[in-house]
Amino acid sequence: MASMPVVGLAPGSPPRPADLVVRNARIYTGDALRPFATALAATAGVIDAVGADADVADLIGPETVVVDALGRRAVPGLNDSHNHVVRGGLHYTLELRWDGVRSLRHALAMLREQAARTPDGQWVRVAGGWSVESFAEHRMPTPAELNEAAPDTPVIVTHLYQAAILNRAALRAAGITRKVAAPPGGQIVRGHDGEPTGMLIAAPAALLLYSTIAKAPVLDPDGQRESTRQFLRELNRFGLTSLIDAAGGFQDYPGGYAAVTDLHEAGELTVRIAYHLFPQTLGGEVEDLRRWTGMVRPEQGDGWLRFNGAGENLTWAAADFENFAQPRPELPAYEGEFEKAVRLLMENGWGFRLHATYDETIRRDLAVFEKLAAEGLFPNGNRWLFDHAETISPESLDRVAALGGAIGVQHRLAYQGETFRDRYGTEAAAAAPPLGAMRERGLTVAAGTDATRVSTFNPWVALYWLVSGRNVSGVPLRSPANRVDRETALGMYTAAGASLTGEGGIKGMLRPGYYADLAVLSEDYFTVPEGEIPGIEALLTVAGGRIVYAAGQFEGLAAPAPAVVPEWSPIAHFGGYQASPGQPGSQRPGVQQARSLGQAAAESAQYRTWRADRGLAAGLVALDDPCFG
């Protein structure tokens, strides 16, 4: 690998030369003892020195890769504390990603183009990374629009945990007919003739949506491995070097983890993964957990792939899906099996994370934890946290703190904050989630995306949400007390995530003895105008001292990206996250770009006029179909 030319630096003969030196950078270390530097050196994947350029000059040998950062901002590698990369990677190259697309008009054009190149027997699938709040038109596509765009190719488009839209070809391929009944918690919308229209609604659970998308063709093991490799590289594009996989439905162990395990064994992971295990068998969750406790132990693995505990569900009955288009679900009694699951974990030294959207659910969970704590069994030295916690109360936060818990927050409300506000009110939206109250209690609060089926995997969109309190279309929702400054937000995306995996002493900052994980950014995160934070990308990403992604001035310093397969893949043609014109990455070969913001605003204005002419509400709404009235 060739170094960038560095004037005035000649290699010497140090006794232990560095493998990598990054100099002439504006490094934010995240280390309170030395927050800023201009250079660092790393050997065998670990940082040797952090300081001024002169401090690392003596570590440069004949084989040292020296990178001149050209005065750009560098930060610790980002750590998404809640991602579904293990499952998402299996399908990534089969998905048409609308992440970053600004208008439905452009999204449908992408879909039409992709349908034309998709071979017989395959589907076009859009699964997450967008919402009505990210489109200028502020609405979902209709079944008629999908039928027009793709008359013969099956198409399914999922919208958050709320709905899925299918064309006629997908209804046929999925076997959804007038005789098929919807499962509990789901609705198949039917026309006056009794035939399915193509709209599936989560009311409120998402099982119907994801059991339907699971009927689409899957990749073979080689394809799943290559798809996962491409997804990890896309995460590297945004400076991610670590994540915590929160597991999920249709993700069995160990079979569902084969792709990441194979990449790890080949030394080809470019993102560090700490994974969780999620019981799959409804009614048999405790047995799933009991079987797994005999197979794997917490922290088993290494710095690239390690086991971190159970969750984000422990029992299906305790899951309060956050479909904010529907009323809060009233969960039946679940405490009996839930207590058995938690007791089993504590007795076997397993930590866990727990999906909990509403305070009503959190209070019930805490009562179980406190019962076990009275017996001396909780937390029993194990790490645990609540995920999401949009409506957690101050009283519940006090109880979390007393039990030694942590919180994981994700930018789900960047994609459905207006829907939440319309149901629960402006005051509730201003404190969802209550970041100020969490921080006042000294809780560890780690940030993530919950990608890929709700929010985008782009961490800078989440960082913008943390800092600004605005959703993806720029609408202010959270109060100043529940926003954080940029340094705090970055800490939530680095050091806090490391603490959730027990790695706070080895990653999350740039300090000697820590992993050499860092990103050199396209723009200075600390000074760029707030509204431009979502446009930041990494121009250079280093994981374990190895350059895993390079673009712009640094292009050529990373190994060439493998070709995307299959060749008709939406990712091969459009790429992943769709950068807007003028943003980093917007001129990358093969990437189709979203419309300009001016056009999106014009389309939005046209839509408002259309509604006003018909005597409809002046404000934009999520759905026009009377089925949703």
UniProtKB/TrEMBL annotation:
Domain of life: Bacteria
Disordered as annotated region, ranges: 576-596
UniProt cross-references to InterPro entries, sorted A to Z: Amidohydro_3 (IPR013108), Metal-dep_hydrolase_composite (IPR011059), Metal_Hydrolase (IPR032466), YtcJ-like (IPR033932)
UniProt feature, compositional bias: Polar residues: 580-596
CDD domains noted in UniProt: YtcJ_like (cd01300)
Source lineage: Bacteria, Bacillati, Actinomycetota, Actinomycetes, Kitasatosporales
SUPFAM superfamilies associated with the record: Composite domain of metallo-dependent hydrolases (SSF51338), Metallo-dependent hydrolases (SSF51556)
Gene3D superfamilies to which the protein is assigned, alphabetical: 3.10.310.70, Metal-dependent hydrolases (3.20.20.140), Urease, subunit C, domain 1 (2.30.40.10)
Residue ranges annotated for the Amidohydrolase domain, each copy included: 66-549
Organism: Actinacidiphila guanduensis
Protein name: Amidohydrolase 3 domain-containing protein
Family annotation (Pfam families): Amidohydro_3
Gene Ontology MF term list: hydrolase activity, acting on carbon-nitrogen (but not peptide) bonds
